[in-house]
Structures are given as C-alpha cells and as structure tokens.
Design goal:
Elements (H helix, E strand, L loop, with lengths): L7 E4 L6 E4 L11 H9 L11 H28 L2 H8 L3 H10 L7 H13 L5 H17 L1
Antiparallel strand pairs: 1-2
Helix pairs in contact: 5-6
InterPro entries: Hsp70_NEF-Inhibitors
Organism: Bombycilla garrulus (Bohemian waxwing)
Protein name: SIL1 factor
C-alpha cells in the first residue's frame, strides 16, 4: 500500500511487519521537503492518505491554469511597458536636467565634457606646470571611472 510522502516507515523486527507513522502536525519539524511543497502549493488535500487519479488531474489542471495566467499577465505587462518606455518614465533626459539646473544658475557638465576641458587645459601653452599636473590628476580620476 502506498504511504504519503513524509511518513516515517520502519520494519518491526519482532512481528516482521512494516509500520508507517504520519509526521507530527503540531511541530512541523518532521515534514519533508515534498510535504512542505504540497502544503505551500495548496492545490491538493495534503491530509489524504492517497489520491485518486481524478484528484491529481484536477490539481495538475489548476497548476497549469495558474501558470498560463501568470504568463499572460507578464506578457501583457511587457507588451504594454517596453524597456524604453519604462526608462523614459523613470529617468529624464540630460538636456532637460541641464535646462532645469540652468534655471537655478547651476551649470551641470557630463564627465565627457569635463575630460575635454582637462585635456585642453593640459595641451594649452598658457597653462603653468602646476595647472597641467592638476589637470592630469583630475583626468586620471575621470578616466578611471570610465
């Protein structure tokens, strides 16, 4: 006879019979991985000693239906919300940020723009040796980030 997963099975040496004991429901310490999975799924009656083929088919159908519904929802979400649309909603373009900061009398420069200025300062014949060394140190910092 089939025994439910998670049962404790032993062979009684005095009588020669096999004995099975259901796990303790109060402590839940003796539950096996299979038993915890069935409880988590909640699709089948876990207290039954055995399952009919109809019960198993119904449980499988319910699992397949819920899986299909999850796939449809995720597909529709991806279809409605493309990656570009998501990024556009979450972030603003750099040009818009620059305009807003200019209104606040703040000039925001990208790393690229700063690096171009540092290179031109280094190549300038009007720059002193200290300015060129400082430009190289700053340039090293920005290049390291890239």
């Amino acid at each position: 006879q089939a025994v439910p997963a998670g049962s404790h099975v032993r062979l009684n040496l005095q009588t020669g019979e096999r004995e099975a004991k259901l796990p303790d429901r109060e402590h839940r310490e003796s539950d096996t991985r299979e038993e915890r999975r069935r409880i988590r799924l909640g699709k089948v009656d876990v207290d039954a000693n055995s399952f009919t083929s109809e019960e198993l088919k119904k449980a499988l159908d319910k699992m397949k239906e819920s899986e299909k519904a999850e796939r449809k929802v995720s597909f529709l979400f991806l279809k409605q919300c493309t990656v570009q649309g998501y990024v556009r909603k979450k972030f603003r373009p750099i040009e818009q940020l620059k305009e807003e900061f200019e209104k606040l009398n703040m000039k925001i420069e990208t790393d690229y723009e700063i690096m171009v200025k540092l290179i031109s300062k280094f190549n300038s014949s009007a720059s002193t040796l200290d300015e060129k060394v400082a430009a190289l140190y700053d340039l090293e910092y920005y290049v390291h980030q890239v």
